[in-house]
Amino acid sequence: MKVGLLVPNLGPLATGPGSVDVVTAIALKAEELGYDALWVADHVVLPMHIKSRYPYNDTGEFPANPADGFLEPLSLLGYLAGATKRVRLGTWVLVLPHRNPIVTAKMFATLDVLSRGRMMLGAGIGWMEEEISLLGAPFKKRGKLSDEYLQAMRELWTNPDPQFEGEFCQFSDIKCEPKPVQNPLPVWIGGHSARAMRRVVEHGDGWVAVARSYDGFKEGVEMIRVAADKAGRDMSSIQILVAPAYATSVDTFIEETKRYQDLGYDSFLAPLPLWSDKLEEGVGFMEDFAQKVTLEA
Fold first, then answer.
1. Is residue 297 part of a domain?
2. 203 lies in a domain?
């Protein structure tokens, strides 16, 4: 199987000047052990009081402490591109409304060049109204805005004379160089709603599936299948990367991956303990996991 990891760019291990030693150790150990990819999470600021409901646990409470560090993902990917040689690098997931799409497209193209074609854009529309509004995007229109941003970035990455005319983004008579090394640069869509599944079909190369349950995952796949049929897209062209969020130990994770492999999926995100304050705990998890499975980097 192919297995990626979330780099601890948030929480206790991302706090203070020692965070560079943490991300370096995780990245180098991942390459040594044969992991396929490293992913980084995205928030710019964390409000002290969050009323928005976090969609990926039962309580609805965002698990991060706003006082802890949260390393900016694109800056971190640039560092990781220089620190590693083989492992693929991506955002899990970049909140599209946070950033100007022209600047984002330029940064990802540059990162792809600097990493020699190892970059992946994991993208979503976001859930935290307080943060999205603070950064200047219309929260209630963030879905339409995000669709436009994805279209605009594709245009900038692929057209030597890019032009785009939308409600939220417009450009023409410009150059945006260099282009990414990869053509196309992979775009993975995050989310779990029916609209998010249509976004996978319309704008994505794959789905980053944070599965709160096995049955919930299958429901998401079925929504993608329905959207693909309507759009006339071959379902086999859509990749799926599975993160069984409910499997938090190495042994339970391995047991759950067998169920997904029976469905034909072989790409996973392992639950590295992000909230630990001990680097050795994360490294121990990586080593334990690698000893118990065969990694196909």
1. no
2. yes
